[in-house]
TrEMBL record:
Residues 113-248 form the O-antigen ligase-related domain. This is O-antigen ligase-related domain-containing protein. The keyword Transmembrane applies. It comes from the Bacteria. It is a multi-pass membrane protein. The keyword Membrane applies.
Amino acid sequence: MGLLLLGLAAAWALLSTPEAPQAGAAGAAYVLLAVGLVAGFLLGTHDPATPGLLVLAGALVVLMLAWPQPVSGEAMTAPLGYMNANAALVLCAAAGAVVATSGRPMAWRGAAAGISLAAAVACATQDAQAAALAAVLLAGWSVTRHLGPTVLWAVVAAVLLLVPVLLTVAWAAGLLPRPRLLVSALSEERFDLWSEAWDLLLREPVTGIGPGRFSEESPTGADPDLAWAHSYVLQTGAELGFVGLGLLALLVGWASFALGRQAVLLGILLLPASVDYVLHFGGVLLALSMVVGGALSAPRVERQAPGAPP
């Protein structure tokens, strides 16, 4: 089902407004998600720890090859060309460590939590607040995910997935006043971008304005760093319309259902993308989808260590 939804989303990106400047890139992004998802699942079927460890190792290698630029403090910096995208890659690396310890003894999970906290510190020092918060949540979840009923974690996952989206949409539509604390932390321009994306969605509700046209239509988008809506939901809505949004909702819903009690992982990984454009980087897309693919395979082949919790 997931691959079918990704295929439909790719087709819609390509065919809804084929003349759009980035229609091909938008379709390719969904294909890349499918590749990462399948790779993570197949590798995880062989050994549940493999996809997570590969993402962790791959991210570390990429970051070290670009060292010390990733910690330079510059907004546009290697390896991905954007500081917050680098932070999202660090978050995916920590998530890879967490997925690799599924079904392992608590000592292993504690080590994964330590990696997540280190990732939180690294992101915080680079002023990537959303990724830092997500990494802290990841650390807490990594050592508590075996506790409590599945329905509890389903509620937590729903909160993580829905609340950031509903709040950004409410602010974009003018249904809620802009909180001063968040405006100071995220910038006035980011709230303006959300509002502009919402207006563009209402202008072209079915097909959207087309991939790559947000920066052309947005009054705030003249700055290269502000050429995106800084929200994966509002960006999708503005450029692919309600049809694209519906496919995205179905895809996230399917992944959440398939992950079961591990759906919290998806909510944590998508948290930075609710307030930034980190999903427009292929490296982040591939790492995220491989981690999720590995998490999807883990319950089927989990090899319990002696004394490990279920």
